[in-house]
Design a protein that fits this description.
With 444 residues, the protein is α+β, with helices and mostly antiparallel strands. The chain has 16 helices and 10 strands. Helix 4 packs across helix 13 and helix 10 runs antiparallel to helix 11. The longest helix has 24 residues. The protein is globular. The structure holds (R)-mevalonate. The site of (R)-mevalonate has 10 residues, from helix 10 and helix 13.
């Protein structure tokens, strides 16, 4: 094993020192690399310090585009949705789906529930029956022990909603679980939930081991871990679009409305059935969801993990969205768990998250759930519509042309020549390069 690049005390070094170590270890002391990296430091020291505070060993910033998708009619209100995403054509697709549904009734949403869950996992030599028999005593003790921690959340209308024991002893020998459900109002609530769970853990262990509630040989509870669950199937929002079949046509597809509807439904049914297709289909939904989740400073890993688990809730991974055609009405909809917050955490710290929330009109968590679900469904609609009509590459490569132009270092008038030459032609990296190599003349 080579220890060439091992380093002692890295976290204690200043940013300069970290950068110097990196440049000497990986870039042959090339000073220009240091310049490139520091080029992305924020020009205001104060803002850079805020960004530095989000993580550890920060040496620079990684930029992603912050875009907006306008014209989203959601429950009768027009919204402009902020999106942070690097993939060409995602924002364009969202905007075109928004415009499409703007004149067809828009997106209708409904928050079904906002309950979040957390668990204390513990080992114990007793049985579920014994826990059940003392449940009332135990729960009331636990609630008393965390009263100070929940008081503020209760003032905001939230707090602990329920407690129950779950038995894992059959699968895991001696493992039990305390499951707590919470309402965290406008905050995502991770810190609140984890703090309460840890206090529950200490209290539960004390109560079982230090009191005489159980006989002496059962005073051996051991808390393994206390943590919220990112699987929040009850923090759920429903979103749908619908219109009479004959209104489904539009300028961006040439097929008749009816053909489009049936091909679209078939594509969704395929994704409801085949996991290989379902993963890509749902990835399209998360193109939209992740983008607004990132823009608003929420935890996109938690949202993704939960969404994918929800997609597999019946034991097979399936499309999150559904399509129905009944009585000549096209209906496209999904239920999606979205544990989002609009106060606390990064939402209040990241300068661009604050702006994103301002664009959205300082939404409540439930409003943000509704907007996010609408963006996910819009993205899915646009992708599937392209797939069953023009094919995905048509729009995608058109948006990707700019990346190819940048990659080849083409600028100014020559870039314009590329854009106009490829306006009606098939775009590929090699075709653009050939066009450039030909001196920006027609390529045969
Ligand atoms: C690409 O980022 C997303 C799509 O593949 C989604 C889909 O296939 O439905 C276009």
């Amino acid at each position: 094993m080579s220890l060439n690049h091992a380093v002692e005390g890295f976290s204690k070094m200043s940013k300069e020192q970290k950068l110097d170590w990196l440049i000497s270890s990986y870039f042959d002391n090339d000073a220009s690399v240091k310049e490139q990296i520091s080029h992305f430091w924020h020009r205001f020291q104060e803002t850079q310090e805020v960004l530095d505070g989000f993580s550890e060993n920060v040496i620079s910033n990684h930029y992603l585009p912050f875009s907006v998708a306008p014209n989203f009619l959601i429950d009768g209100e027009i919204k402009t949705l902020p999106m942070v995403i690097e993939e060409s054509s995602v924002v364009a697709a969202a905007s075109s789906a928004a415009k499409f549904w703007l004149t067809r009734g828009g997106f209708k949403t409904k928050v079904i529930s906002t309950v979040k869950l957390g668990h204390v996992h513990f080992t114990w030599s007793g049985s579920m029956e014994m826990l059940k028999a003392e449940e009332e005593n135990i729960f009331s003790y636990l609630k008393d022990e965390v009263a100070d921690l929940v008081i503020n959340m209760e003032k905001r209308g939230g707090g602990i909603r329920s407690l129950k024991f779950k038995d894992f002893s059959e699968q895991l020998g001696d493992v039990f679980q305390l499951e707590a459900s919470f309402e965290t109002c406008d905050s995502m609530g991770a810190n609140f939930i984890n703090t309460v769970l840890e206090a529950f853990g200490t209290a539960l262990e004390d109560f079982i081991n230090e009191t005489e509630i159980f006989p002496e040989n059962y005073r051996d509870a051991d808390i393994i871990m206390c943590i919220l669950s990112n699987y929040t199937p009850e923090c759920l929002v429903r979103v749908e679009v619908s219109c009479p079949l004959d209104q489904l046509g539009g300028p961006i597809n040439e097929k008749s409305a009816k053909t489009l509807a049936y091909r679209f439904k078939k594509a969704v049914d395929i994704a409801r059935t085949d996991t290989y297709r379902a993963v890509t289909h749902n990835k399209g939904i998360f193109n939209g969801i992740d983008a607004i989740v990132l823009a608003t400073g929420n935890d996109f890993r938690a949202i993704e993990a939960c969404g994918h688990a929800f997609a597999a809730k019946d034991g097979t991974y399936r499309s999150l969205s559904y399509c129905e055609i009944e009585n000549n009405v096209f209906r496209f909809y999904m239920d999606i768990p979205l544990a989002l917050g609009t106060v606390g955490g990064l939402t209040a710290l990241h300068p661009m998250s604050k702006i994103a929330l301002k664009i959205l009109g300082q939404p409540s968590a439930q409003q943000l759930m509704r907007y996010t679900a609408a963006l996910g469904l819009a993205q899915n609609f646009a992708a599937v519509k392209s797939l069953v009509t023009t094919g995905i590459q048509h729009g995608h490569m058109r948006m990707h042309l700019q990346n190819i132009i940048n990659h080849l270092g083409i600028k100014g008038e020559e870039a314009k020549k590329v854009e106009s030459y490829f306006a009606d032609k098939k775009i590929s990296f090699s075709a653009v390069r050939a066009f450039a190599e030909s001196g920006f003349n027609v390529v045969n």
